[in-house]
């Protein structure tokens, strides 16, 4: 099975299934000398864990083990392998539906592609795989912190309830929503939703302090690489940058970001940021903003129509550990994938000019 490796210089390969022995990641291309903290990793992983009655009751401890690439909490510049054992799962609950294709899941597609599949919790297509992405994201964010680059992702909307004013830190509430009024409305909305159904939403991500000039032309554009990374997350169905889909309804004079030179800051700035910080696939030095649409969790206990592996029409009612909403939990996954892309693209951009290559070779 291909498609489990991402990146060109800073590469990650994730492995493992939802109900398998373990999940994990191999990170290749991480520079030596990055100081890491086990407590920081635990805290970062905890953002992905279920923390409310609206989230899955599969409470994995996510106890990780760094098998290689780190000594005395300092990266060695060699491949890093991090392993997480799966402990909290009950595969027997899937025996009754192992021959049935669940609506909204990749069961049918995997069966058609491979002729075989791990029916236990979705196997490789499960959201459980994202723990490996978050582990890699931690290392990527540590590299970016050395460059003063900050990435923040949070819940932008739950169903049709959008944040309007950012007046608190996302971690202040379990919905990871940085708007207290919107949080209260969303919480009450979730309480009123049917118990046998699920809800979707939107995650917004902001990247600050990335210099102009990061990204490659044509096929490897920065926004194209970010889009691929974010869309590769199973629950994401759409992505937009800056004004996004709204730009389709603007005139060019409205959508164009006019430049000006700020003599005090001695740099070129923009009056607006409809581009979301990226033009021509290359960063322009302004804040990068994108939003990702998250579909409702497909595992619901509501009775649904489907087919089995004998092409018979059947009905299915899914039981087990499932989220009513995954939007708050997925924000850290989006943050991680964005960080992985940035590190890879920054490393690539450092090789785009001969003077940079000389500087890196002789003095980096």
For the structure shown, list the relevant keywords.
alpha+beta, globular, 8 helices, five-stranded antiparallel sheet, 364 residues, 18 strands
> Roughly how many Å apart are the termini?
37 Å
Average of per-residue pLDDT values: 92
As for the CATH topology, it is: Chorismate synthase, AroC fold
Listing every helix as H and every strand as E from the N terminus to the C terminus, the arrangement reads EEEHEEEEHHEEHEHEHEEEEEEEHH
**Beta-strand fraction estimate:** 15-25%
Radius of gyration: 22 Å
Compact overview of the structure:
By secondary structure, the protein is of the alpha+beta class.
Overview of the molecule:
This protein is α+β, with helices and mostly antiparallel strands. The chain has one domain (5-242, 277-363): 4-Layer Sandwich (Chorismate synthase, AroC fold). It is 26% helix and 23% strand. It is built from 8 helices and 18 strands. It has helices at residues 38-46, 107-114, 130-146, 180-192, 222-231, 252-255, 327-349, 354-363, and strands at 5-6, 11-16, 22-28, 64-68, 70-71, 74-75, 80-85, 150-158, 161-162, 201-208, 236-241, 259-262, 267-270, 278-279, 282-283, 288-294, 304-307, 313-316. Strand 12 and strand 13 form a beta hairpin. The chain is globular. The mean pLDDT is 92.
Topology:
Layout: E1 5-6, E2 11-16, E3 22-28, H1 38-46, E4 64-68, E5 70-71, E6 74-75, E7 80-85, H2 107-114, H3 130-146, E8 150-158, E9 161-162, H4 180-192, E10 201-208, H5 222-231, E11 236-241, H6 252-255, E12 259-262, E13 267-270, E14 278-279, E15 282-283, E16 288-294, E17 304-307, E18 313-316, H7 327-349, H8 354-363
Antiparallel strand pairs: 1-2, 2-3, 3-7, 4-7, 5-6, 8-9, 8-10, 10-16, 11-16, 12-13, 14-15, 17-18
Helix pairs in contact: 1-3, 3-7, 5-7
